[in-house]
Amino acid sequence: MTDKPAATILYIEDDPASRSLVERTLKFAGYRVLLAERGLEGIDLARRERPDLILTDINLPDISGRDVTATLRADDRFDTTPIVALTAQTMDEFRTLALGAGVNGYLTKPIDIETLADSIKRYLEGARDTVDESALAAAKEQYVDDVVTRLEQQVRDLQVMNENLLRLDKMKDTFIQVTAHELRTPLTLVFGYSRLIEEAPDIKSLIAGDDNLATLMKGLQDSIKRMQNIINEILTVSRIITNQIDLSITTVSPGHLMESAMSNFTDGLKQRRLTMTMDAIGWPERIRADGELLAMVFNNLLSNAIKYTPDGGQITITAIQQDSNCIIRIQDTGIGIAPADLVKIFESFHTTGDYMLHSTSKTAFRGGGIGLGLAVVRGVAEAHGGSIRAESTGHNPENPPGSTFILTLPLIAHPRRARKLA
Ligand code: ADP
Protein backbone atom coordinates (compact mmCIF):
# COMPACT_ATOMS: atom_id res chain seq x y z
CA MET A 1 0.00 0.00 0.00
CA THR A 2 1.44 3.41 -0.93
CA ASP A 3 1.07 6.42 1.36
CA LYS A 4 -1.18 9.20 0.13
CA PRO A 5 1.00 12.23 -0.82
CA ALA A 6 1.01 14.91 1.88
CA ALA A 7 -1.45 17.72 1.24
CA THR A 8 0.18 21.04 0.28
CA ILE A 9 -0.65 24.11 2.35
CA LEU A 10 0.23 27.61 1.13
CA TYR A 11 0.66 30.10 3.98
CA ILE A 12 0.69 33.81 3.09
CA GLU A 13 2.07 35.83 6.00
CA ASP A 14 4.42 38.80 6.32
CA ASP A 15 5.30 38.25 9.99
CA PRO A 16 8.39 35.96 10.12
CA ALA A 17 7.61 34.62 13.62
CA SER A 18 4.10 33.48 12.64
CA ARG A 19 5.44 32.10 9.38
CA SER A 20 8.02 29.96 11.08
CA LEU A 21 5.65 28.77 13.85
CA VAL A 22 2.92 27.70 11.41
CA GLU A 23 5.46 26.14 9.06
CA ARG A 24 6.95 24.02 11.85
CA THR A 25 3.57 23.02 13.24
CA LEU A 26 2.12 21.98 9.87
CA LYS A 27 5.27 20.22 8.72
CA PHE A 28 5.29 18.31 11.99
CA ALA A 29 1.72 17.24 11.23
CA GLY A 30 2.93 15.86 7.88
CA TYR A 31 1.91 18.62 5.47
CA ARG A 32 4.01 20.10 2.67
CA VAL A 33 4.19 23.85 3.35
CA LEU A 34 4.73 26.68 0.86
CA LEU A 35 5.34 30.22 2.13
CA ALA A 36 4.73 33.67 0.67
CA GLU A 37 5.33 37.02 2.34
CA ARG A 38 3.03 39.14 0.19
CA GLY A 39 -0.43 38.78 -1.25
CA LEU A 40 0.50 39.00 -4.94
CA GLU A 41 3.41 36.62 -4.41
CA GLY A 42 0.96 34.23 -2.73
CA ILE A 43 -1.46 34.42 -5.69
CA ASP A 44 1.38 33.66 -8.14
CA LEU A 45 2.57 30.76 -6.01
CA ALA A 46 -0.97 29.40 -5.70
CA ARG A 47 -1.44 29.52 -9.48
CA ARG A 48 1.87 27.74 -10.01
CA GLU A 49 1.66 25.11 -7.29
CA ARG A 50 -2.11 24.58 -6.92
CA PRO A 51 -2.00 23.92 -3.12
CA ASP A 52 -4.73 21.89 -1.43
CA LEU A 53 -5.44 24.65 1.08
CA ILE A 54 -4.49 28.29 1.40
CA LEU A 55 -3.99 29.92 4.76
CA THR A 56 -3.70 33.68 4.64
CA ASP A 57 -3.11 36.58 6.97
CA ILE A 58 -5.55 39.46 6.38
CA ASN A 59 -3.18 42.42 6.82
CA LEU A 60 -0.50 41.94 4.19
CA PRO A 61 1.96 44.57 2.94
CA ASP A 62 0.59 44.85 -0.61
CA ILE A 63 -3.01 43.65 -0.97
CA SER A 64 -5.18 42.30 1.85
CA GLY A 65 -5.92 38.63 2.52
CA ARG A 66 -9.52 39.44 1.51
CA ASP A 67 -8.26 40.63 -1.91
CA VAL A 68 -6.17 37.48 -2.23
CA THR A 69 -9.27 35.40 -1.54
CA ALA A 70 -11.53 37.35 -3.90
CA THR A 71 -8.90 37.16 -6.68
CA LEU A 72 -8.45 33.40 -6.29
CA ARG A 73 -12.19 32.80 -6.07
CA ALA A 74 -12.61 34.61 -9.40
CA ASP A 75 -10.30 31.98 -10.93
CA ASP A 76 -12.13 28.73 -11.81
CA ARG A 77 -9.19 26.63 -10.63
CA PHE A 78 -9.73 27.82 -7.04
CA ASP A 79 -13.53 27.50 -6.91
CA THR A 80 -13.40 24.77 -4.32
CA THR A 81 -9.92 25.15 -2.77
CA PRO A 82 -10.35 25.80 0.96
CA ILE A 83 -9.05 29.27 1.86
CA VAL A 84 -8.71 30.03 5.56
CA ALA A 85 -7.94 33.39 7.17
CA LEU A 86 -5.49 33.36 10.07
CA THR A 87 -5.47 36.76 11.67
CA ALA A 88 -5.20 38.84 14.81
CA GLN A 89 -8.43 40.65 13.91
CA THR A 90 -10.78 38.96 16.32
CA MET A 91 -13.89 41.10 15.99
CA ASP A 92 -16.96 39.42 14.46
CA GLU A 93 -17.22 42.17 11.89
CA PHE A 94 -13.80 41.25 10.43
CA ARG A 95 -14.69 37.61 10.42
CA THR A 96 -17.88 38.31 8.47
CA LEU A 97 -15.96 40.53 6.05
CA ALA A 98 -13.43 37.75 5.37
CA LEU A 99 -16.24 35.24 4.85
CA GLY A 100 -17.89 37.75 2.51
CA ALA A 101 -14.72 37.77 0.40
CA GLY A 102 -14.94 33.99 0.11
CA VAL A 103 -12.85 32.35 2.87
CA ASN A 104 -14.08 29.00 4.18
CA GLY A 105 -12.94 29.62 7.69
CA TYR A 106 -11.43 32.07 10.10
CA LEU A 107 -8.73 31.23 12.66
CA THR A 108 -7.47 33.81 15.12
CA LYS A 109 -4.04 34.63 16.46
CA PRO A 110 -2.25 34.00 18.75
CA ILE A 111 -1.87 30.72 16.96
CA ASP A 112 -2.93 27.72 18.99
CA ILE A 113 -0.39 25.10 17.97
CA GLU A 114 -2.32 22.39 19.80
CA THR A 115 -5.38 22.75 17.53
CA LEU A 116 -4.00 24.27 14.33
CA ALA A 117 -3.28 20.99 12.54
CA ASP A 118 -6.73 19.62 13.46
CA SER A 119 -8.46 22.76 12.22
CA ILE A 120 -6.55 22.57 8.91
CA LYS A 121 -7.55 18.90 8.59
CA ARG A 122 -11.24 19.83 9.10
CA TYR A 123 -11.10 22.54 6.42
CA LEU A 124 -9.31 20.14 4.06
CA GLU A 125 -12.17 17.72 4.59
CA GLY A 126 -14.68 20.37 3.55
CA ALA A 127 -15.62 22.14 6.79
CA ARG A 128 -16.97 25.64 6.33
CA ASP A 129 -17.61 28.29 9.02
CA THR A 130 -21.20 29.40 9.15
CA VAL A 131 -22.44 32.90 9.41
CA ASP A 132 -25.81 34.55 9.38
CA GLU A 133 -26.92 34.81 5.70
CA SER A 134 -28.03 38.43 5.83
CA ALA A 135 -24.77 39.46 7.58
CA LEU A 136 -22.86 37.61 4.85
CA ALA A 137 -24.78 39.39 2.08
CA ALA A 138 -24.12 42.76 3.77
CA ALA A 139 -20.42 41.86 4.13
CA LYS A 140 -20.18 40.96 0.44
CA GLU A 141 -21.76 44.27 -0.49
CA GLN A 142 -19.43 46.15 1.82
CA TYR A 143 -16.43 44.34 0.36
CA VAL A 144 -17.42 45.40 -3.17
CA ASP A 145 -17.91 49.01 -1.96
CA ASP A 146 -14.46 48.92 -0.31
CA VAL A 147 -12.84 47.65 -3.49
CA VAL A 148 -14.48 50.35 -5.60
CA THR A 149 -13.47 53.09 -3.13
CA ARG A 150 -9.90 51.82 -3.05
CA LEU A 151 -9.78 51.58 -6.84
CA GLU A 152 -11.00 55.15 -7.19
CA GLN A 153 -8.32 56.30 -4.75
CA GLN A 154 -5.65 54.32 -6.59
CA VAL A 155 -6.67 55.82 -9.94
CA ARG A 156 -6.44 59.29 -8.37
CA ASP A 157 -3.01 58.46 -6.87
CA LEU A 158 -1.82 57.10 -10.21
CA GLN A 159 -2.98 60.24 -11.99
CA VAL A 160 -1.02 62.42 -9.55
CA MET A 161 2.04 60.17 -9.86
CA ASN A 162 1.78 60.24 -13.63
CA GLU A 163 1.59 64.02 -13.68
CA ASN A 164 4.64 64.19 -11.40
CA LEU A 165 6.56 61.78 -13.62
CA LEU A 166 5.69 63.77 -16.73
CA ARG A 167 6.81 66.96 -14.99
CA LEU A 168 10.09 65.31 -13.87
CA ASP A 169 10.60 63.89 -17.36
CA LYS A 170 10.18 67.34 -18.86
CA MET A 171 12.55 68.81 -16.25
CA LYS A 172 15.12 66.15 -17.16
CA ASP A 173 14.78 66.94 -20.87
CA THR A 174 15.14 70.68 -20.22
CA PHE A 175 18.06 70.05 -17.86
CA ILE A 176 19.93 67.99 -20.44
CA GLN A 177 19.26 70.51 -23.16
CA VAL A 178 20.20 73.59 -21.10
CA THR A 179 23.33 71.93 -19.69
CA ALA A 180 24.55 70.81 -23.12
CA HIS A 181 23.84 74.30 -24.49
CA GLU A 182 25.65 76.03 -21.65
CA LEU A 183 28.67 73.73 -22.04
CA ARG A 184 28.89 74.26 -25.77
CA THR A 185 29.62 78.01 -25.63
CA PRO A 186 32.61 77.92 -23.23
CA LEU A 187 33.94 74.86 -25.03
CA THR A 188 33.91 76.74 -28.34
CA LEU A 189 35.87 79.49 -26.60
CA VAL A 190 38.36 77.00 -25.13
CA PHE A 191 38.89 75.55 -28.59
CA GLY A 192 39.31 79.02 -30.13
CA TYR A 193 41.76 80.12 -27.39
CA SER A 194 43.81 76.94 -27.79
CA ARG A 195 44.09 77.69 -31.52
CA LEU A 196 45.08 81.31 -30.79
CA ILE A 197 47.75 80.15 -28.32
CA GLU A 198 49.04 77.65 -30.86
CA GLU A 199 49.19 80.35 -33.51
CA ALA A 200 50.97 82.95 -31.33
CA PRO A 201 54.44 83.43 -32.91
CA ASP A 202 56.43 82.68 -29.72
CA ILE A 203 54.45 79.53 -28.97
CA LYS A 204 54.47 78.46 -32.62
CA SER A 205 58.27 78.44 -32.67
CA LEU A 206 58.32 76.67 -29.28
CA ILE A 207 56.01 73.94 -30.62
CA ALA A 208 58.02 73.64 -33.81
CA GLY A 209 61.13 72.83 -31.77
CA ASP A 210 59.52 70.55 -29.19
CA ASP A 211 57.73 67.37 -30.24
CA ASN A 212 56.31 66.81 -26.75
CA LEU A 213 54.67 70.20 -26.76
CA ALA A 214 53.24 69.52 -30.23
CA THR A 215 51.76 66.23 -28.96
CA LEU A 216 50.28 67.99 -25.92
CA MET A 217 48.65 70.63 -28.12
CA LYS A 218 47.19 67.96 -30.42
CA GLY A 219 45.91 65.97 -27.43
CA LEU A 220 44.27 69.08 -26.03
CA GLN A 221 42.50 69.87 -29.28
CA ASP A 222 41.46 66.28 -29.92
CA SER A 223 39.91 66.11 -26.45
CA ILE A 224 38.03 69.34 -26.99
CA LYS A 225 36.71 68.02 -30.31
CA ARG A 226 35.54 64.82 -28.64
CA MET A 227 33.71 66.84 -26.01
CA GLN A 228 32.12 68.91 -28.75
CA ASN A 229 30.97 65.73 -30.48
CA ILE A 230 29.40 64.39 -27.29
CA ILE A 231 27.65 67.69 -26.63
CA ASN A 232 26.35 67.80 -30.21
CA GLU A 233 25.10 64.24 -29.82
CA ILE A 234 23.31 65.13 -26.58
CA LEU A 235 21.79 68.22 -28.18
CA THR A 236 20.56 66.21 -31.18
CA VAL A 237 19.05 63.57 -28.92
CA SER A 238 17.38 66.21 -26.80
CA ARG A 239 16.00 67.90 -29.91
CA ILE A 240 14.56 64.53 -30.94
CA ILE A 241 13.19 63.89 -27.43
CA THR A 242 11.48 67.25 -27.30
CA ASN A 243 10.21 66.97 -30.86
CA GLN A 244 12.21 70.01 -31.89
CA ILE A 245 14.08 68.40 -34.73
CA ASP A 246 13.57 70.60 -37.75
CA LEU A 247 15.21 69.16 -40.79
CA SER A 248 17.11 71.46 -43.07
CA ILE A 249 16.43 69.61 -46.32
CA THR A 250 18.65 70.11 -49.34
CA THR A 251 19.75 67.94 -52.26
CA VAL A 252 22.66 65.78 -51.13
CA SER A 253 24.68 62.89 -52.50
CA PRO A 254 24.49 60.05 -49.96
CA GLY A 255 27.51 58.33 -51.53
CA HIS A 256 29.66 61.42 -51.16
CA LEU A 257 28.47 61.93 -47.60
CA MET A 258 29.43 58.34 -46.82
CA GLU A 259 32.89 58.73 -48.39
CA SER A 260 33.45 61.85 -46.39
CA ALA A 261 32.36 60.06 -43.17
CA MET A 262 34.75 57.21 -44.00
CA SER A 263 37.66 59.59 -44.37
CA ASN A 264 37.29 60.58 -40.70
CA PHE A 265 38.42 57.12 -39.65
CA THR A 266 41.48 56.56 -41.83
CA ASP A 267 43.98 56.66 -38.93
CA GLY A 268 41.88 54.49 -36.62
CA LEU A 269 41.33 51.88 -39.33
CA LYS A 270 45.07 51.68 -40.00
CA GLN A 271 45.91 51.33 -36.31
CA ARG A 272 43.43 48.51 -35.92
CA ARG A 273 44.23 46.83 -39.27
CA LEU A 274 40.59 47.08 -40.31
CA THR A 275 39.44 47.21 -43.90
CA MET A 276 36.50 49.42 -44.77
CA THR A 277 35.20 49.23 -48.30
CA MET A 278 32.32 50.93 -50.01
CA ASP A 279 30.71 49.61 -53.15
CA ALA A 280 30.09 52.82 -55.12
CA ILE A 281 27.58 51.16 -57.47
CA GLY A 282 23.93 51.29 -56.59
CA TRP A 283 23.83 54.55 -54.66
CA PRO A 284 21.23 57.03 -55.84
CA GLU A 285 22.97 60.13 -57.19
CA ARG A 286 20.97 62.54 -55.11
CA ILE A 287 18.43 62.46 -52.34
CA ARG A 288 16.55 65.18 -50.48
CA ALA A 289 17.68 65.09 -46.86
CA ASP A 290 19.37 67.01 -44.04
CA GLY A 291 23.04 66.58 -45.00
CA GLU A 292 24.46 67.57 -41.61
CA LEU A 293 22.29 65.11 -39.71
CA LEU A 294 22.95 62.34 -42.25
CA ALA A 295 26.69 62.89 -41.82
CA MET A 296 26.18 62.40 -38.08
CA VAL A 297 24.20 59.20 -38.70
CA PHE A 298 26.88 57.77 -41.05
CA ASN A 299 29.62 58.71 -38.56
CA ASN A 300 27.83 56.94 -35.73
CA LEU A 301 27.20 53.77 -37.75
CA LEU A 302 30.77 53.63 -39.03
CA SER A 303 32.32 54.33 -35.64
CA ASN A 304 30.20 51.56 -34.10
CA ALA A 305 31.18 49.11 -36.84
CA ILE A 306 34.82 49.94 -36.09
CA LYS A 307 34.44 49.88 -32.29
CA TYR A 308 32.72 46.52 -32.20
CA THR A 309 34.89 44.72 -34.78
CA PRO A 310 38.09 43.00 -33.60
CA ASP A 311 41.41 44.07 -35.15
CA GLY A 312 41.94 42.84 -38.69
CA GLY A 313 38.18 42.74 -39.46
CA GLN A 314 36.20 43.92 -42.42
CA ILE A 315 33.48 46.56 -42.80
CA THR A 316 31.48 46.66 -46.03
CA ILE A 317 29.15 49.45 -47.07
CA THR A 318 26.64 49.06 -49.87
CA ALA A 319 23.53 50.85 -51.04
CA ILE A 320 20.68 50.23 -53.40
CA GLN A 321 17.78 52.24 -54.64
CA GLN A 322 14.53 50.36 -54.13
CA ASP A 323 11.18 51.92 -55.02
CA SER A 324 11.36 55.39 -53.58
CA ASN A 325 13.97 54.54 -50.96
CA CYS A 326 17.72 54.45 -50.62
CA ILE A 327 18.71 51.42 -48.56
CA ILE A 328 22.18 51.55 -47.03
CA ARG A 329 23.77 48.46 -45.44
CA ILE A 330 26.78 48.63 -43.13
CA GLN A 331 28.05 45.14 -42.48
CA ASP A 332 30.86 44.29 -40.08
CA THR A 333 32.67 41.18 -38.91
CA GLY A 334 32.33 42.28 -35.27
CA ILE A 335 31.20 40.80 -31.97
CA GLY A 336 27.53 40.77 -32.98
CA ILE A 337 24.39 41.59 -31.03
CA ALA A 338 22.23 39.29 -28.91
CA PRO A 339 18.65 38.87 -30.24
CA ALA A 340 17.25 40.50 -27.07
CA ASP A 341 19.32 43.64 -27.74
CA LEU A 342 18.58 44.08 -31.44
CA VAL A 343 15.80 46.57 -30.74
CA LYS A 344 16.93 47.91 -27.36
CA ILE A 345 20.24 49.25 -28.68
CA PHE A 346 18.32 52.06 -30.39
CA GLU A 347 17.05 53.39 -27.05
CA SER A 348 18.92 56.35 -25.61
CA PHE A 349 21.59 55.51 -23.03
CA HIS A 350 21.32 51.79 -23.79
CA THR A 351 24.72 50.14 -23.96
CA THR A 352 25.26 46.42 -23.89
CA GLY A 353 28.81 46.68 -22.57
CA ASP A 354 30.05 47.71 -19.16
CA TYR A 355 29.21 51.38 -18.74
CA MET A 356 32.33 51.79 -16.60
CA LEU A 357 34.43 51.08 -19.69
CA HIS A 358 33.03 54.28 -21.16
CA SER A 359 35.38 55.90 -23.61
CA THR A 360 34.74 58.53 -26.21
CA SER A 361 37.21 56.96 -28.60
CA LYS A 362 35.51 56.29 -31.90
CA THR A 363 37.96 53.61 -32.97
CA ALA A 364 39.23 51.64 -29.94
CA PHE A 365 37.95 48.05 -29.91
CA ARG A 366 34.87 47.87 -27.65
CA GLY A 367 35.72 51.44 -26.62
CA GLY A 368 32.21 51.82 -25.30
CA GLY A 369 30.26 55.03 -25.29
CA ILE A 370 27.37 56.67 -23.57
CA GLY A 371 24.79 54.86 -25.65
CA LEU A 372 23.45 57.81 -27.62
CA GLY A 373 24.84 57.05 -31.08
CA LEU A 374 22.10 54.70 -32.24
CA ALA A 375 19.38 56.76 -30.56
CA VAL A 376 20.50 59.65 -32.76
CA VAL A 377 20.55 57.35 -35.81
CA ARG A 378 17.00 56.18 -35.19
CA GLY A 379 15.72 59.67 -34.36
CA VAL A 380 17.20 61.20 -37.50
CA ALA A 381 16.14 58.29 -39.76
CA GLU A 382 12.56 58.49 -38.49
CA ALA A 383 12.49 62.27 -38.71
CA HIS A 384 13.23 61.80 -42.44
CA GLY A 385 10.39 59.28 -42.74
CA GLY A 386 12.93 56.43 -42.84
CA SER A 387 13.98 53.65 -40.48
CA ILE A 388 16.94 51.74 -39.07
CA ARG A 389 17.26 48.14 -37.99
CA ALA A 390 20.03 45.75 -37.01
CA GLU A 391 20.60 42.13 -38.00
CA SER A 392 22.92 39.74 -36.20
CA THR A 393 22.85 36.08 -35.29
CA GLY A 394 24.04 36.77 -31.74
CA HIS A 395 26.73 38.25 -29.54
CA ASN A 396 30.00 36.34 -29.45
CA PRO A 397 33.29 38.20 -28.93
CA GLU A 398 35.28 34.94 -29.14
CA ASN A 399 33.88 33.87 -32.49
CA PRO A 400 32.47 37.11 -33.94
CA PRO A 401 29.34 36.56 -36.04
CA GLY A 402 29.19 40.18 -37.31
CA SER A 403 26.28 42.62 -37.52
CA THR A 404 24.53 44.49 -40.29
CA PHE A 405 22.80 47.84 -39.87
CA ILE A 406 20.19 48.65 -42.50
CA LEU A 407 19.27 52.28 -42.92
CA THR A 408 16.29 53.09 -45.11
CA LEU A 409 15.94 56.67 -46.27
CA PRO A 410 13.26 57.98 -48.61
CA LEU A 411 14.72 59.54 -51.76
CA ILE A 412 12.70 62.59 -50.86
CA ALA A 413 12.49 63.05 -47.12
CA HIS A 414 8.93 63.41 -45.93
CA PRO A 415 9.65 64.82 -42.49
CA ARG A 416 7.70 63.19 -39.78
CA ARG A 417 7.68 64.39 -36.21
CA ALA A 418 10.33 62.28 -34.50
CA ARG A 419 8.83 59.88 -32.00
CA LYS A 420 9.69 60.25 -28.36
CA LEU A 421 12.78 58.24 -27.56
CA ALA A 422 12.56 55.51 -24.99
P1 ADP B 1 27.64 53.42 -27.73
O1 ADP B 1 27.99 54.82 -27.45
O2 ADP B 1 27.61 52.53 -26.51
O3 ADP B 1 28.36 52.82 -28.88
P2 ADP B 1 25.31 53.28 -29.39
O4 ADP B 1 23.94 53.85 -29.17
O5 ADP B 1 26.05 53.74 -30.60
O6 ADP B 1 26.10 53.58 -28.09
O7 ADP B 1 25.20 51.70 -29.41
C1 ADP B 1 24.45 51.06 -28.39
C2 ADP B 1 24.98 49.64 -28.19
O8 ADP B 1 24.73 48.87 -29.36
C3 ADP B 1 26.48 49.57 -27.99
O9 ADP B 1 26.81 49.73 -26.62
C4 ADP B 1 26.81 48.18 -28.51
O10 ADP B 1 26.66 47.24 -27.48
C5 ADP B 1 25.75 47.90 -29.55
N1 ADP B 1 26.26 48.06 -30.92
C6 ADP B 1 26.14 49.13 -31.72
N2 ADP B 1 26.70 48.94 -32.93
C7 ADP B 1 27.20 47.67 -32.90
C8 ADP B 1 27.91 46.85 -33.86
N3 ADP B 1 28.20 47.30 -35.07
N4 ADP B 1 28.25 45.60 -33.46
C9 ADP B 1 27.93 45.13 -32.23
N5 ADP B 1 27.28 45.86 -31.29
C10 ADP B 1 26.91 47.12 -31.62
Q: Please outline the major beta sheet.
A: 5 strands, parallel
The rough form would be described as elongated
Looking at how many chains there are and whether they match, the oligomeric state comes to single chain
Radius of gyration: 33 Å
The fraction of residues assigned to DSSP E strands is 15-25%
Bound molecules: adenosine-5'-diphosphate
Look at the structure and give the mean pLDDT: 89
**Structure class:** alpha/beta
Number of strands: 12
Summed up:
Helices cover 48% and strands 15% of the residues. The protein has 422 residues and is an alpha/beta fold.
What would you say this structure looks like, in words?
- With 422 residues, the protein is α/β, with parallel strands linked by helices.
- The chain contains 12 helices and 12 strands.
- It is elongated.
- The C terminus is likely disordered.
- Adenosine-5'-diphosphate (ADP) binds next to helix 11 and helix 12.
